[in-house]
Amino acid sequence: MTSICLAVMSLNYQQKVSQLDIVQxxxxxxxxxxKIFKEYKATLDRIRRMLALFYEKYAVNGExxxxxxNKYNRLDKxxxxxKKELRSLGNKRxxxxxxxxxxxxxxxxxxxxxxxxxxxxxxxxxx
Length: 127
Description:
By secondary structure, this protein is mainly alpha-helical. The chain has one domain. Helix content is about 90%, strand content about 0%. The longest helix is centred in the first third of the chain and has 56 residues, at about 5-60. The radius of gyration is 27 Å and the shape is rod-shaped. The N and C termini lie close together (about 10 Å).
């Protein structure tokens, strides 16, 4: 092959990869945002239920005093439960990110193979 033909192949290949990169980045951003948002919302809902239950259980005449909340380490137990929820959220974010990285690697590999194959096929037709 001539150097001009190789340069054209290289340019075509780079253009295809760039186009695929843009599409993939948009898909990844949206997928990650949706999954993480879903986990944050679920965690927030659970924490709100904990707080509502705590208030309902320990409020007297519609008011919750600090003294009543601290009685029998109630407030500490609530804080521990909230920390547990937040730790769980962090672990879920890590799991989502790991899975996403694995998917990106797999897709990137397949994308590279597709770009190479289609570029070679296009240039083979020209010869």
